[in-house]
Design brief:
Number of helices: 13
Oligomer: single chain
CATH class of the largest domain: Alpha Beta
CATH architecture of the largest domain: 3-Layer(aba) Sandwich
Helix content: 25-40%
Mean pLDDT: 90
Radius of gyration: 24 Å
């Protein structure tokens, strides 16, 4: 396989992807297995409805134990050996394994059985936890993110068991119940049950086709440091007339934020960029040849210019390789209609810092704290919400090549290869601890409405996505 030397843009995500031209190769999935998937797609959809009917909102700890029990039951139903792993104070982690009769590789699937809250309820066309199948799609909370993906992978294993007596390589499954709240206990689980998670590759949580039906192979995630700054200057709100003598928490927050980043988007914390790696010559060449519709990007979001007056070429590179420091929210004082003359006692600001490969969030968080201390903000409280390093698999790894070649076989078109997702997840626990390659491939679409009302999963995407996963398993097992 060789790089085609161009990149494609998928949907409105404004993230650009290397497109790899894979030579045509014979499909390895058997006709019998493909026929079984095609003929049972309605039954598989009903299993997604079954799982998505079980409420499992981790943010409110609703239905987590019941959903974990259902997931284990569904694993047993396909013939998997199962274990429910537990840590005090954590949602259960459900583990399963389908062993191959053939010696060779092991592929692991990561998914989560928890979902986002369903609000706003008034925008749903059908009850979020009473999924419906209509117009060729399933509608309900979690039918795409992530219960539909989870069930699709179980049913791939079932398809192998029913048609071939087992898969061409061993398959492991681990399903956590806290992904939507930051996977806060996953590192503890891996530390306690480490040997269970060893594999030759991991197919990560989710996978999509773009608006044109082109499959996307995603090979990593960005890291993150998410914090909340709290400044308290008074014991209670005061009349604003006292601003002539009493300190203002909001003005102090403004000065703090100005000490973190300049007008050109450069983070001012000393040492923040020390570990940002330079792109290789191959990556730079690909980046230079990458098409970039700067005007279209600005128009999509109503922006008159790029930040700091960047050119299209500069913006293109920034989107690929620049760490970010984003203000996610600020609140203080009175923000209702009319006027209220108040001097707020405190102010809060949330920020997320997206990180690129090689940056160490532990080190950067310490540098952030020191920078504030050295800048006169030692009294400011920093509440750490979450922290994860980036993870990335090379687009030239055989696992990535298998996923790319499989996509072309199943969809009849060259896939988009996303070098790194703009989102974040605990992928580093596997790529760094075990050195496992990872791919995101799956059964959803970019417009599935995840985290939103009327979340959906189209049955045709479910069918093709299952064939894509199966073909990837076949190609990687044979490599």
């Amino acid at each position: 396989m060789k790089a085609a030397g161009r990149l494609k843009r998928a949907g409105l995500s404004n993230v650009y992807f290397l497109s790899l031209a894979a030579p045509s190769r014979p499909r390895l999935v058997s006709d019998k297995l493909e026929k079984y998937i095609n003929e049972n797609i309605d039954a598989f959809a009903n299993d997604i409805v079954r799982l998505a009917s079980q409420r499992s909102v981790s943010a409110r700890k609703e239905g987590i134990e019941e959903c974990a029990a259902l997931v284990e039951r569904m694993l047993r139903e396909i013939g998997a050996e199962t274990k429910v792993l537990r840590i005090d104070g954590a949602a259960p982690l459900v583990f399963g394994e389908v062993k191959s009769k053939k010696p060779g590789k092991t592929i692991m699937f990561y998914n989560h059985y928890d979902v986002q809250p369903e609000e706003p309820l008034e925008l749903w066309k059908s009850p979020p936890f009473k999924p419906e199948i209509r117009d060729g799609a399933i509608y309900g909370r979690g039918v795409s993110d992530d219960k539909g993906e989870l069930v699709a992978r179980l049913k791939v294993a079932q398809s192998y068991m029913e048609t071939q007596g087992g898969p061409p390589c061993s398959l492991k499954f681990f399903f956590e119940g806290e992904e939507e709240t930051g996977s806060v206990h996953l590192a503890e689980y891996i530390e306690k049950y480490g040997d269970l998670f060893k594999a030759d590759g991991v197919i990560w949580e989710y996978g999509t086709v773009d608006a044109n039906g082109t499959p996307k192979v995603t090979l990593g995630v960005k890291g993150i440091i998410y914090v909340e700054f709290v400044i308290r200057s008074l014991s209670q709100d005061a009349h604003s007339s006292f601003a002539a003598a009493l300190p203002s928490a909001p003005w102090r927050m403004v000065r703090l934020l100005n000490a973190l980043k300049d007008a050109n988007e450069r983070i001012l914390v000393p040492g923040w960029y020390d570990d940002v790696s330079t792109l290789s010559e191959d990556e730079l060449r690909v980046l230079q040849e990458m098409p970039f519709d700067g005007d279209g990007l600005k128009k999509s979001y109503g922006a008159s210019a790029f930040v700091g007056g960047m050119t299209d070429e500069q913006a293109k590179k920034a989107l690929v390789q620049r760490p970010t420091g984003n203000i996610a929210g600020i609140w203080a004082g009175y923000t209702g209609p009319g006027s209220k003359t108040v001097l707020p006692k405190e102010i809060h600001a949330k920020m997320d810092f997206r990180l690129v490969p090689e940056q160490d969030p532990d080190d950067l968080f310490k540098k952030l704290r020191k920078h504030l201390d050295d800048s006169g903000f030692a009294d400011v409280e920093i509440q750490l919400e979450s922290m994860e390093p980036a993870a990335r698999t090379s687009h030239r790894h055989p696992f990535a090549q298998a996923a790319v070649a499989a996509a072309e076989e199943v969809y009849g078109r060259e896939p988009i290869v996303q070098l790194g997702s703009p989102g974040t997840g605990p992928l580093y626990l596997f790529t760094r601890r075990y050195g496992m390659p990872s791919v995101d491939i799956g059964v959803s679409a970019e417009d599935s409405g995840i985290h939103a009302p009327n979340e959906n999963l189209r049955l045709e995407n479910l069918r093709k996505g299952m064939l894509w996963i199966s073909e990837t398993i076949e190609k990687f097992s044979a490599s």
